[in-house]
Amino acid sequence: MIKExxxxxxxxxxxxxxMKRIGMKCLKVGYVPGRAADPDKQAEQEAFQxxxxxxxxxxxxAGKRRVLFMDAAHFVMxxxxxxxxxxxxxxxxxxxxxxxFNVLGAVEAVTKxxxxxxxxxxxxxxxxxxxxxxxxxxxxGETITIVLDNARYQKCGLxxxxxxxxxxxxxxxxxxxxxxxxxxxxxxxxxxxxLYSKYYPKFDGFKQAITDCIxxxxxxxxxxxxTLLSWNFQSFQKVKISTV
Length: 244
What we know:
Layout: H1 2-6, H2 12-21, H3 39-61, E1 66-76, E2 100-108, E3 114-119, H4 125-138, E4 144-148, H5 157-166, E5 168-172, H6 182-194, H7 203-220, H8 222-228
Parallel strand pairs: 1-4, 4-5
Antiparallel strand pairs: 1-2, 2-3
Helix pairs in contact: 4-5, 6-7
């Protein structure tokens, strides 16, 4: 591009040095979820955050309400590659098969406690009802709000009726808003801790590693979770979006 626009040709080393001198950085490209960049969607998300989510979080901080963020993660037993500094490329063993460990979880916004329902088949409305019952028992007598997306198995009549019977408020996120769901960050943390460049010869060991990570995270890694699960939510209103 420099040669096309100026007629001057530079090799890659010179070009990198030049870009650093003028203040440029080599940054990983971020992404905007689905249609989240649309002005109408941004306005909807902003209104949800300020009018619905933040007031409930303020009550949670004051001890007047429990706010939990719910979502499912599907961990597939296979090679999950990462980057590592080395002199020669490293290889890890990859297990055969595609066994899957499903985790439906909810993270408490203040304490960072995680409650889960797990299986090896699939997450459905019955799974959601089981987790709602578990949450209601854990925080019996308290006002509970659960923030979750609009997945069909979470917004069906069975779940809505069960939540109402337990006295749990379901606060559904606007569409294309995974950045407003704290537990999405937690699932990335679990994958980083348990899966990146790690080999499990048996499915039982794979499941146990994930289970231990989830169960111990809010006690053994509380400080890390406080930073990871802070209430600073990404906004795309001032993000420059490339069309290339």
